[in-house]
Amino acid sequence: MAYKMNRRGVVAGLAATGLTAPFLNTRMAAAQSGPITLGVVTPLSGPVQLIGNFVRHGAEIGADYINSNGGVNGREIQLQFRDSKANPNDASVAARELIGAGTNLQLGTISSAVALAMGPLLQSEGGVVITSGAGTEKLNHENYNPHVFRVGDSPVSRNAGLVRHIVQSRPDIRKWGGIIPDHEYGRTTWKIFEATMRKAVPEMTGEEAVIAEPILVPYGSGDYRNYIQQAMRLDVDGIYTSVYGGDAVTLYQQAKPFGLFDKIDILLDSANEFLVATAMGDQTPAHWSGFHWYYEANKGNPLSDDLYASYVERTGDQYPMGWAAEAHAAIMAYAKAIEKTGGSTETADVIDALKGLSFDSATGMRHLRAEDNQAVKNAELAYIEPSSEAESGFEVTDYVSLDGENVVEPARPGEMLDLSAL
Amino acid sequence: MYDIGMTVFNGLAWAMATFLVAAGLTLIFGILHILNFAHGGFFMIGAYVSYSIMLGFGGGLPLWLYLVRAMAAGVVVGLLGWVVDKLVFRRLRDVEDAYSLIATYALLLICGGAVTLIWGLNYMGVMPPPALNSVIFLGDMFMPTYTIFIIFCGVAAFVGLELFISKTRTGRLIRVVAADPWMAQLLGLNVKRIYLVTVIVSFAMAGAAGGLLMPNQSLSPELGGIFLLQAFGVVILGGMGSIRGAFVAAIVLGLIESFGTYFFPQYPGIFFLLALGVILLLRPEGIMGKEQTA
Fold this sequence. Notes:
Order of helices and strands of chain B: HHHHEEHHHHHHHH
Order of helices and strands of chain A: HEHEHEHEEHEHEEHEHHEHEHHHEEEEE
Structural class of chain A: alpha/beta
Helix content of chain A: 40-55%
Number of strands of chain A: 16
Oligomer: heterodimer
Number of domains of chain B: 1
Radius of gyration of chain A: 23 Å
Number of domains of chain A: 2
Largest sheet of chain B: 2 strands, antiparallel
CATH topology of the largest domain in chain A: Rossmann fold
CATH class of the largest domain in chain A: Alpha Beta
Radius of gyration of chain B: 19 Å
Largest interface: A-B, 40 and 45 residues
Number of helices of chain A: 13
CATH superfamily of the largest domain in chain A: Response regulator
Largest sheet of chain A: 8 strands, mixed
Helix content of chain B: over 70%
Structural class of chain B: mainly alpha
Distance between the termini of chain A: 56 Å
Shape of chain A: globular
Number of helices of chain B: 12
Strand content of chain B: under 5%
CATH architecture of the largest domain in chain A: 3-Layer(aba) Sandwich
């Protein structure tokens, strides 16, 4: 049915505009002068609540830091928390509800599935999200969306960093195997590991890498003995794994009596940070782990020192993990971007400001590439060993922070990850 | 030969760990006809209680204390069973199955919440006691002593439960009530008390299994769900409520899972489900069927 405009309608429309205009102006003025509200949509219950808690603390510490240093152009940052349950449906409801309430700037996504669901949603609803640890490579490749930014590692920079450091420090280790969770992310991490290893070993040693077929393990299993048996059969010097969280603890617990860790020279763990070590204490197998942020590697950086001290003060936990720093970095990025917009928090302005933004964080300066919204940041890794002297039963005996420019892949938004370009 | 031996060994370890959890589940179904979704939750509480007792003794324990600790966890969870029977299960006896499923699922959520509140969200890992933290070599085969211990515990639990059900007066009364509670009541048996004993024994078995299997996997509030699917599979395949059936089903599924993983490593974790589906298609009443319940 076509809409017919008549004189009465025009008059009514003008009257309505005249009546609401003062309120619109007030709201716009408030948007420029009142507190800045950021929505944090992260798991606050369910199996991933442990990680969501790091995000919550990191975001709160970041907001406190900004506010105690004068805010953003004098405006305070306020946080609105919503529970994503690490589930795309719940996260979508929460994100939409926040946008409906005027909170268009969001952060806190740690699940890859949620991060991928956020792009189309926020594009249609007029919001923007900065993820705080989502690991899928699709975010800045085939599922790139201008409304989604990643201030943390891409899976390429994390795994390529691990590989390059290990090949450099242990060029004698050329025979590798892998224990990989049988899901999309696990397979992706292995592809990146394998491609980088096959390239890095000849480059640095002049010899070829020998890489066995990876051992795929199911998610959430209570028994890994058959897979450990497969690993025991491998003729390898090093094992790479991206098995994660409680599964990793179970795997390591069950592998230890088989002597798997005595059989190999290096265990390379892509992402568990202190999750395994705090669970196993002095039974932790010695291993390198990738980190979003390792505080000792950033000592002297005021943002890192403040994040660490504040986290320990709040929780009593001496081992904060990197998701806290990623949420913290998201706050820093928003603060800097809103400064850049001159105070505007409108979605389009903030997206423009975030693209190409350089900002300081707990891991030093980060740069958000304008092409694919992916941060270029340092890749950090630490060597964790059991210790009879440390109260926790383990200690970090080595760590490195690698320049992000050397490990991140080229920006190719809209295209699948090209492993030959690594 | 080495690989086949290890595959059988690992399959038996899977089977007996699962049977330890499933034993109480099948007992309660056989008598009360309640599919207790919360069973995994009480298994988890048993593991955490055992962990707390271990910390109370300052960490690593000798074997006998490890066993005492697991039994103590069984007692604690058995007492919880008494509470659950009074508050929940008694109200479920004359209602449709759907209510039982919802009520016991709610109990599972409560278990997860309680664990989070009391013990927190962090993962915890416990190694076996020193006496079980070694390896026995049999030719080329290397068999961790803790894994041998799990297999032994599973067999012991089966034998113990069979003897309890068939040789003790309480066990015989349980069988009578399982067969015909109405007639048992007419004959003057205290059916309510027998139900209560069954629930307490079932919960105590879940708690003790949690204590015994604590070094087998990480502790976290997710633990309740990890064995639940496997345990239900074993109970269903065994023939609902049949202890003997559950034992045989655990071995069958464990070996199929183990050999499936050995021959087709590119498809991890699916053989249990595949075997369950195929066997139930061929024999819907399960291995032992209905007439041999409990």
